[in-house]
Automatic annotation (TrEMBL):
InterPro entries cross-referenced by the UniProt entry: NAD(P)-bd_dom (IPR016040), NAD(P)-bd_dom_sf (IPR036291)
Entries under SUPFAM superfamilies matching the protein: NAD(P)-binding Rossmann-fold domains (SSF51735)
Short name of one Pfam family: NAD_binding_10
Name of the molecule in the record: NAD-dependent epimerase/dehydratase
CDD domains in UniProt: SDR_a5
Residue span, NAD(P)-binding domain: 8-184
Coiled-coil annotated spans: none
């Protein structure tokens, strides 16, 4: 069983990721949290948590980990400090501790932030974080979903390196995709876009993994 650090574990999507990992036979989640009281929330559910603030030093957070999911977001409040620089800190820590794979939650539009009508600052931060990971020599998968909804997941998605269209996807299905992308053979060093669709998540990932 592999140890997986989840940055952004207290967020809406992050919580879903942690619980999926906790139910997995392959992975053991470690939730990265900012506050001491959040440690207790996870421990009540039998999930281990690590104290660390993405705006400060997180260089030891990846110690003892095998893989990392970065799903943190500032909700538009501190996009440079958290979405960009926080991501870079986690990448640096992952290099330091020789993490086997980093799965990054990005966003559709992060490839060309300058073309976005809104959220330009957010998409630029995501773009910079993605590029930093790409150049890190770590094994990675970058996942760029469309607009996130709280609809119930279907377990099926549309996935491509470039979908060439806008759309939405449930947080459930995003979380499932991120967890599936942790596997060693899934979408190695690929950047993928995902939306609602009709292909089972595992099959969709298999297609870009070959």
């Amino acid at each position: 069983m592999e140890n997986v650090l989840v940055a952004g574990a207290t967020g809406t999507t992050g919580k879903k990721i942690v619980h999926l990992l906790n139910a997995s036979q392959y992975f053991k989640p470690f939730a990265l949290v900012r506050k001491k009281e959040q440690l207790e929330q996870f421990k009540k559910d039998g999930i281990e948590a690590i104290l660390g603030d993405l705006e400060n030093d997180v260089s030891q957070a990846t110690k003892g980990m095998d893989k990392v999911i970065f799903a943190a977001g500032s909700g538009g409040k501190k996009v440079v400090e958290v979405d960009q620089e926080g991501a870079k800190k986690v990448v640096d820590a992952s290099k330091k501790h020789q993490i086997k794979k980093v799965v990054m939650l990005s966003s559709m539009g992060a490839d060309k932030p300058e073309k976005a009508e809104d959220l330009q600052e957010y998409l630029k931060a995501k773009h910079n974080a993605d590029e930093y990971l790409r150049k890190s020599n770590l094994t990675y998968t970058i996942v760029r979903p469309g607009s996130l909804t709280n609809n119930k997941g279907t377990g099926s998605i549309a996935l491509s390196e470039s979908l060439n269209r806008q759309g939405s996807i449930s947080r459930d299905d995003v979380a499932q995709t991120l967890v599936r992308a942790l596997h060693d053979d899934a979408a190695i060093n690929k950047t993928i876009e995902i939306l609602e669709g009709n292909t089972l998540i595992g099959k969709a990932l298999d297609k870009v993994s070959k």
